[in-house]
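User: structure tokens for this one?
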Amino acid sequence: MPSFSRPGSAVSFPTHPGVLVSTQPPGAPPALVVADILAGLPRRLAHVRAVAAKAERISHQLDNPAERQLLVDSAWFHDVGYAASLVETGFHPIDGARWPFRVGGSDRLCGLVAHHSCAEVEAGLRGLADVIAHFDNERSDLTALLAWCDLTTGPGGEAMGLDERLADIRSRYGQDHVVCQAWRTAEPVARELFTRVGHTGQLGWP
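Assistant:
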């Protein structure tokens, strides 16, 4: 099968058989691009908008303006892999990371999308550890801030503490689902990420 790669990057994966899904011109704001991609998933789009708003609000935690922008951009793109036209592996962090890579997103942006909110744990349970490993997991303060934004935001954009968010995941998927199996391992990792940025997992920001 043909593979997709680009000069200067170690990332490579099979070409996508479908059509790229955004009609926005190159350089369009992420808010417009993501609204285009997730147009058929209004609840998911509401979640993403709330996550991105949080990222914008807390980006001052990062000293470098470029890092602040990367946090906001990764918040906008973290769930685009739910769009039906982007599904390849069936695991949204990986499928979502492949799209910005194909259209010129930086390796760091793609890695943050691929590994957001401890996604590598579930990837392993799905037999996709070698696939997600194509994207670097930087395990940085930016990683932790993105996890906080995502894991304190409910599926429709509601504000939630980490405990409430994980309880909601369990109620929606059921204890035996691979998502819940993954969170039994990933929960302490998520709590470590929250601690890294000075947050306990309750509602609000210190």
